TrEMBL record:
Belongs to the CENP-Q/OKP1 family. Residues 92-154 form a coiled coil. The gene is LOC106557372. The keyword Nucleotide-binding does not apply. The lineage of its organism: Eukaryota, Metazoa, Chordata, Craniata, Vertebrata. Pfam families: CENP-Q (PF13094). GO terms for cellular component: chromosome, centromeric region; nucleus. Keywords: Centromere, Chromosome, Coiled coil, Nucleus. Its main location: nucleus. Signal peptide: none annotated. This is Centromere protein Q. It comes from Thamnophis sirtalis. It is found in: Chromosome, Centromere; Nucleus.
Length: 223
């Protein structure tokens, strides 16, 4: 009786009689190429770390490589185990594809993060510019309010310092009565209407309204 121990983790050592023959086969070319590539890159990795006796180490490793490749070339394994090795190769290829996809996804994610960071910097710069503009507008508004205060001289009670009207002023005839005394009042009314609708008059009235609004707002704040 002889023992044949398989390398598959899913199987246990099998007891095979001497009369039974185990079908063996040499490794396929793709597996040999894969093993040779792994040996090659392992040697490269080792030599990369060498700082002394580089040539001697390289020569020694190459000799070991040749001996190992000769053993692999003549190595025979049970046919059943070849299926297991082939499955391992497939799994490795699939895992390699997943790794490549993950690397691409990670690179894309890094690019998106870089874009987001750049956008945040741009937004921050725009916010700083807007804050400066708002500050400048506040100073300009304060200057306009100061000018408005100077135009409207107010006393301690915050009333507008306008000159008082005499009693005789209220006894004067109204403008309407004076217009009726004119020979052609309709023409005068038309002229006054034209003046009232003119751009100059509208601009002046708008300016006066703004001044009154600012004065009222100022009085409300100080109260």
């Amino acid at each position: 009786m002889v023992f044949v121990e398989t390398e598959s983790p899913e199987t246990k050592p099998k007891i095979v009689s001497s009369k039974q023959k185990v079908k063996c086969q040499r490794l396929p070319k793709n597996i040999k190429k894969s093993l040779e590539s792994k040996i090659h890159w392992t040697i490269i990795a080792i030599l990369y770390e060498i700082t002394q006796d580089y040539n001697e180490t390289e020569k020694h490793l190459n000799n070991l490589k040749e001996r190992l490749l000769k053993c692999i070339a003549t190595l025979e394994v049970p046919v059943d185990e070849l299926n297991y090795l082939s499955n391992v190769q497939k799994v490795l290829k699939e895992e390699n594809k997943k790794y490549i996809l993950m690397e691409e996804g990670l690179q894309h994610l890094e690019e998106e993060i870089t874009k987001d960071v750049s956008t945040l910097h741009t937004v921050d710069e725009k916010m700083q510019i807007l804050q400066k503009k708002i500050k400048a507008l506040k100073h300009e508004l304060a200057a306009l309010e100061t000018e408005a205060d100077q135009l409207f001289h107010r006393d301690t009670k915050h009333d507008l310092g306008l000159p008082g009207l005499s009693v005789e002023y209220f006894k004067l005839p109204t403008l309407q009565n004076e217009i009726l005394k004119i020979g052609n009042p309709h023409a005068l009314l038309d002229d006054m209407n034209i003046i009232q609708q003119s751009d100059e008059m509208k601009n002046m009235m708008g300016f006066l309204e703004q001044l009154y609004e600012k004065a009222d707002h100022r009085c409300t704040e100080e109260q």
